[in-house]
Structures are given as structure tokens and as C-alpha cells.
Amino acid sequence: MAFNFSFLEIQGKTRKTGEKKKNGFYLFLLFLSVFLKTSFPIAISSCSSPTPEEQAQADAMVAAQHGYNLLLQGDYEGFALCHEGMAEAPRSYREQMADVYKMYIDSEQRAHRGIEKVKATRAEKDTTLNLMQVFMLISYADSTTEEIVVPVVQQQDGWKLR
Predict the structure, then answer these.
(1) Was domain 52-161 assigned CATH 1.10.1660.10?
(2) What residues does each domain of the chain span?
(3) What is the pTM of this model?
(4) CA–CA separation, 83 vs 79, rounded Å?
(5) Number of helices and strands (H, E) in the chain?
(6) Contacts of 77 (CB under 8 A, 6+ apart)
(7) Distance in angstroms (rounded) separating the CA atoms of residues 73 and 144
(8) Are 67 and 84 in contact (CB under 8 A)?
(9) What is the pLDDT of residues 112-138, one digit of tens each?
(10) Cβ-based neighbours of 134, under 8 Å, separated by 6 or more
(11) Alpha helices (runs of H) in the chain, residue ranges in sequence order
(12) What confidence tens digit (pLDDT) does each residue in 45-92 have?
């Protein structure tokens, strides 16, 4: 689709020959400069860095996504370590939790032929509980989907699942 800029052309006469000339190119440059002056500040403002809350939401979503990726890969102890307080928990407790996560995956295999993917879709700050609620979309092999809410808390060593 070509744009017709003929509306920008102004007819004028040259001094020497008296023939008509078109000043459309100069008007086009004027139009372009006005356009750039008005659109450039808008483009710059849209490239600003995220606010601290937006960054916290993004970090919480990354932590939740990472944890559930470990679960889908079969790294049940890694998924357990993504939870709050698990690094300090006794090894026997972490192993028990890993067994629970394996049983969960097995039950989803029986109910839905397994989980195909898990995706963090958004996060909302819960000021009452002082955590982020990360919304995750679970896609099952039987073509059903489910949205779950995963509470994520900020620790000294990063975001952890609760």
C-alpha cells in the first residue's frame, strides 16, 4: 500500500522562469520532523526500566517457572529445594517431600496422561500475606488446562515457593 503525499505539495513559482515548482519535499521534511518530535518522547518513555514491584513480579514468576520446570523434568529433590525453608530441612525430610512430588506427578499421569507444560502467566502482590501470588497455567496431555496459584516469598537467597 503506497501513501500519496500529494496533499503536502504547495505550488509556487520560480523567480527567473516563472514556471511552477512543487515544494512538497520541504513540506514532507516539516511533517516528518513534527512527527518525530511528538513520537520520540513516547517511544523513550515506553523503554523505561520496570518499577521495583514489576521487577519483583517478574522475579517471582521466574522462580515459580524454574521450580515447576524441575518438577516436570523429574528433579523432585530440586523442586523440593525451591520451597521456602527446604535448604535447612533434614535430608530425610527433603527425600520424603521428593517422594510426595513424584506421587503427585504419577497421579497426574493417571488422571490426565501427564502434564505437558506449566507456564507462569502473571503475578500479583499480596500485601496481607507479604508474598507474590503467581498464576500458573498447567496444560495436560489430555488437552485440558488448569490454572493454579502458587504463593512465592522473597528470601535472602531469592524467591522461594511456599
Answers:
(1) no
(2) 52-161
(3) 0.68
(4) 7
(5) 4, 6
(6) 94, 95, 98
(7) 20
(8) no
(9) 999 999 999 999 999 888 899 999 999
(10) 60, 61, 64, 120, 122, 123, 149, 150, 151, 152
(11) 24-45, 52-72, 76-81, 91-112
(12) 567 898 989 999 999 999 999 999 999 999 999 999 999 999 999 999
